[in-house]
Amino acid sequence: AFALAGPRDLAGRHVVVSAGGTREPLDPVRFLGNRSSGRQGVALARVAAARGARVTLVAANLAVPPPAGVDVVPVETAAQLRDAVRAAAKDADVVVMAAAVADYRPASVQGAKIKKRADRSAPAIELVENVDVLAELAGERLREGQLVVGFAAETGDDDGSVLEHGRAKALRKGADLLVVNAVGEGRGFGTDVNEVVVLDGAGQVVATAGGTKDDVAGTVWDAVRDRW
Ligand code: CTP
Ligand code: CA
């Protein structure tokens, strides 16, 4: 008997979830990072496992513990995350990119700690672009029929609303689903409550969810299941 009664509608599926935020080293003691806790990705992994899936969680610097019963692959950098996700994706029915992946990394990593300068000048950090893992997965499809799902945190600005930015990103990424999270204006960050819109690859709304990160995870897996 199962402790939690509920649908086992992901049984027989292998799902890969990336979660957390990457760290890009500058020297042995410093990195460029972001504030992602990994809570949404961990919720996705936990809910998928509860619904019967085999789960691989590619975990970048999580601030919360991973759920029991999932395979955890720890990574630090965007390059390590890319390698780990691609390795797991060869055998996956769906890849969900919930991680906050650094767009850029320092062009070079110093082998020794960078010292403060005696002449009081400030160093400049040169950056180079990281591979867009989501767009690459969507373009390649490492396994036939594999679904690829992205996440995007958006604020509205002078160039468009949350939904307009989300639609443009959905078209640009080529993923099957893009989960757009409205942040700012008292939503998203630092709260346990999210408000999301799920778009398909053409930018059409296929679902909306408000509530906890577990509620959002449930809505995402429903949308994935409906595509299978
Ligand atoms: N992503 C990725 N690889 C990167 C950057 C982002 O796979 N190098 C993925 C994220 O995991 C997320 C999706 O792309 O699923 C959207 O990330 P986001 O930062 O919103 O998109 P960008 O295209 O980087 O756009 P911007 O940062 O300018 O909003
Ligand atoms: Ca980005």
TrEMBL record:
Domain DNA/pantothenate metabolism flavoprotein C-terminal: start-end pairs: 10-225
Keyword Lipid metabolism belongs to the record: no
UniProt superkingdom: Bacteria
Binding site for CTP: 103, 113, 151, 169, 173
Pathway membership, UniProt: Cofactor biosynthesis; coenzyme A biosynthesis; CoA from (R)-pantothenate: step 3/5; Cofactor biosynthesis; coenzyme A biosynthesis; CoA from (R)-pantothenate: step 2/5
EC number: 4.1.1.36, 6.3.2.5
Cofactor: Mg(2+); FMN
Cofactor descriptive note: Binds 1 FMN per subunit.
Region called Phosphopantothenate--cysteine ligase, residue ranges: 15-228
Catalytic activity: N-[(R)-4-phosphopantothenoyl]-L-cysteine + H(+) = (R)-4'-phosphopantetheine + CO2; (R)-4'-phosphopantothenate + L-cysteine + CTP = N-[(R)-4-phosphopantothenoyl]-L-cysteine + CMP + diphosphate + H(+)
Biological process according to GO: coenzyme A biosynthetic process; pantothenate catabolic process
A GO MF label: phosphopantothenate--cysteine ligase activity
Alphabetical UniProt keywords: Decarboxylase, Flavoprotein, FMN, Ligase, Lyase, Magnesium, Metal-binding, Multifunctional enzyme
A cellular-component GO term for this protein: phosphopantothenoylcysteine decarboxylase complex
Protein family (similarity comment): In the N-terminal section; belongs to the HFCD (homo-oligomeric flavin containing Cys decarboxylase) superfamily. In the C-terminal section; belongs to the PPC synthetase family.
Job description of the protein: Catalyzes two steps in the biosynthesis of coenzyme A. In the first step cysteine is conjugated to 4'-phosphopantothenate to form 4-phosphopantothenoylcysteine, in the latter compound is decarboxylated to form 4'-phosphopantotheine.
Protein name listed in UniProt: Coenzyme A biosynthesis bifunctional protein CoaBC
